[in-house]
Amino acid sequence: MRPKRIEVLGVPVDCVDMSTAVQRVDDAIRARQTLSVLAVNPEKVIKAQSDVTVMRLLTNAGLLIPDGIGVVLAARIFGLGKMGRVPGAELMPKLCELAKVRGYKVFLFGASPEVNERAAQKLRETYRGLNIVGRQHGFVRDDEIPELLDRINASGAQIMFVALGSPRQELWIEKYAPILNVKIFQGVGGTFDVIAGSVKRAPWVFRKMHLEWFYRLAVQPRRLLRQTALPRFAYQVLRRRFAG
Ligand code: UDP
Question: Is the pTM of this model over 0.85?
Fold first, then answer.
């Protein structure tokens, strides 16, 4: 069943929590439907408001997960619907677990060659029996794409994790999903780096307090520019709420 789709500050997001998101993916594979899974967070909401391409990519996605607590709180503040936080970096391991249990075939695309290889190794260790049928680092030239597409289709992969960063991964999925036999495409950003251990997730206490964004900012100050979206998002939510 398709989850209810609402709009937060004019940008679509689906009312799901972790278990309904995993269920939606499983249902799509069983029904042989193609489903792209993209993350919605305050940064993307702000971007989509002024960037028609980002808005189109989100609008056309099959499943829009509430990636950050900001989106979940905004939906709650506006009384639009109930959802739980579904960070893309947490959904991917859940989908690996699902793939292991159901025997779904997985393809890993993106990140540097070392990170891609180490992520595959780590996933194989963590989810014994997980069928990773192919992988490719994320720095392919345009002339290498046809061979890559053939290889993906020949692998029989049903789930593909695309880790190229935003909006590169969303654009890639939009362009190539129609010619691939893969059913599930999840855009996972820097998640391979986290799995490979080259970028650490925030310590538990930061995650529990929903301050992962703050931790990432502290350890990767280059994100500062991107994070200016957060106060803008909060301001717009509060203004709209209290201005009626
Ligand atoms: N990346 C890639 N190909 C490119 C550019 C980036 O595979 O042409 C990878 C990069 O190595 C990293 C990921 O994309 O693994 C981007 O991570 P980032 O944390 O910047 O993405 P976000 O989650 O913020 O979208």
Answer: yes
